[in-house]
Amino acid sequence: MNSKSAISNLNSSVWRSFRTAAWLGWQIESNWTDPFLFAVYSIIKPLASAMILVVMYGVITHGDFASPLFPYIYLGNAFYIYVGAVMTGISWAVVDDREHYKTLKYIYTAPTHFPTYLCGRGVARFLTGTFSVVITIVCGILFLHVPIDFAAMDVPLFVVALLIGVLMLAMMGLLLAGVTLLTVHHYGAVGEAVAGALYLFSGAIFPLDVLPAFLRPLGFLMPITYWLELLRRTLVGSVAQAFPTLAGLSNAQLFAILLGLTALFTALAAIVFRWCELRARERGLLDRVSNY
Amino acid sequence: MRQTGWRLFLQTVIARAYPRVIGMQRERSWMFFDVFLPLLAVSAYVFVYRAIGAPEEYVGFVVIGGAMTAFWMNVLWAMSSQLYWEKEQGNLALYIMAPNSMMAILLGMAVGGMFATSLRAAAVVLIGSVIFQVQYVVVSLPALLAVFFLAMTALYGMGMMLASLFLLLSREAWHLSNLAQEPIFLLAGFYFPIKHFNFWIAAVASIIPLTLGLDAMRQLVFPSGAALGFVSVPIEIGVLVILCVVFLVAARVLLGYMERLAIREGRLTESRG
To answer: How far apart (Å, rounded) are the C-alpha atoms in residues B51 and B42?
Structure first.
């Protein structure tokens, strides 16, 4: 077999793994109930999460939703849904297949490209997450007057930033999936802990300046910080730039940092996942079931 | 000697509580995550309050509310869904075949879960209070203890009742438990006083025992708590007593009904993954 046909076979295997995993993930996510109930389920959870912040904000500011801080909090929280959906979704696939369905060893030994399979499993969560993000933002615009100016919106930058961010989250998810391969007894706690920590340190729902000074560098190391800032700026423009944390950076600079950190996390994910996968094979963890 | 009657009931309660208390302490990493995850959420909401310039007592409200999420999560995932998990693992049929009361098994799960979760909630309150320098002024310790135990009894009674309802579910159980997190955090006022809701919304939310439990506890431990309380503490105690009775009786009645229904429909051993 020449190298050209080997590459072609790999591409075919990668695409097949991705497509099949995406379909499987969608079935797992959605076929437990009828479409109507599934839609309600997908709406209530993110809206309730957003409403907690809305009530907290409304109570303290006596309903001053015109303040720039409100869209900052609201949009940050809305887009953060992708973090739970994509990053945690990909790592959760390991727990789900190993512990719940007990199929991980069969999938691993099948002619699939395993990392691609895991990324494919995240597609269903990405789709439901997108639905939740859209519903949350639409409700914000309709009922809370989140000031999105569609005429002034930088659509190309928004779309590109969003896609790069999703790729970055997928790579972080793959990194976590690698770690999850080694942490049999900790079920989904690793993913939840990372998502929770990122919620706190990435300035998703409050400007990083509010954090104690010694914790802020953690936020500056996270690509999600720049991603959320860029998305806010493309949607609400100068409102997002009212906060001093990243005010010194232009959109181009934010984009460059996001690209750089995404590349870094992609490389890191590839190395860590490969290492964890080998360790899991050595230690016989791929089919270890804790029955927790 | 063969045990019967109340001795068997008590032994069953202890036997089912044992793995909850001992098993949950055995996995050290779980203890870490059980304390660490609520603390992350507490910290995030505290910083939101600080970003919008909230009075400091709201920080205390968040710390107490964040600690109490541990009980709600325990009731959801380790009480309501428990019979579903047991069914998935193949234990449920064994429970029913054994010569003991299912009510005693549920009670054992509740007692064990409550004890183990109390340790975690106490850790969240302690660490959260130290980190965010929360000041408490306890108005009445007996009233505070009464509210806590009544709220826990009603909450775990609710968990026992839901466990029997979940008996008929399959994969929906996981999704329903997942769904009952954020909406309940919102309705029950885990991170803000429910007084800010419309009266009728708060009244409906009071069906969840933690709503009034939290509100009463906040009134009893924070100087401004009474001003931000939904109704007075004695009324909340009275409602909690009623909720205790209603949920425990409902749990007993529903458990018997659902068990018979599940047996008749052949759902006790099914596993639909």
So the answer is: 14
Closest C-alpha to B179, from A95, A41, A102, A40:
A41
What letter does residue B181 receive in the DSSP assignment? S
Give the residue numbers in B contacting A (CB under 8 Å), as ranges: 27, 29-30, 33, 36-37, 40-41, 43-45, 47-54, 58, 89, 170-172, 175, 178-179, 181-183, 185-186, 190-193, 196-197, 273
Least Cα separation, residue B129 to chain A (angstroms): 16
In the block, tokens 């924070």 appear at B222
Place of tokens 């047996």: B263
What values do phi and psi take at A240, rounded to 5?
Answer: -70, -25
Cα separation, B77 vs B37, in Å, equals: 15
φ/ψ region of A155 (left if φ > 0, alpha if ψ in -120 to 50, else beta) reads alpha
Q: Reply yes or no on whether the pLDDT at A186 is more than 90.
A: no
What are the Cα distances from residue B248, in Å, to A5, B102, B117?
Answer: 68, 13, 20
DSSP per position, A185-217: GGTTHHHHHHHHHHHHHTTSSS-GGGS-TTTHH
CA A210 to mean position of chain CA atoms: 23
ipTM of the complex model: 0.88
Distance CA B139, CA B93 (A): 49
Closest C-alpha to B152, from B16, B12, B10, B247? B247
Interface of A with B in 174-213 (CB under 8 A): 185-186, 189, 192-193, 196-197, 199-200, 205-207, 210-211
Name the range with the highest mean pLDDT among A123-127, B43-47, B84-88, B220-224. Answer: B43-47
Please list, in sequence order, all residues whose beta carbon lies within 8 angstroms of the beta carbon of residue B131, skipping any fewer than 6 positions away.
B43
Residue entry with tokens 């599940």? B262
Residues B205/B67, Cβ–Cβ less than 8 Å: no
Rounded to 5°, angle at Cα B200 from B195 and B206: 70
* pLDDT tens string B151-199: 999 999 999 888 888 777 766 777 788 888 899 999 999 999 999 998 9
> CA of B42: which chain A residue's CA is closest?
A200
Report yes or no: A202 and A220 within 8 Å, Cβ to Cβ: no
Domain boundaries of chain B, sorted by first residue: 5-264
CA–CA distance, A147 with A144 (Å, rounded to integer): 9
Location of structure tokens 């859209």: A134
Phi-psi map region of A4: left, alpha, beta (phi>0 left; psi -120 to 50 alpha) = alpha
Does residue A258 have a pLDDT over 60?
Answer: yes
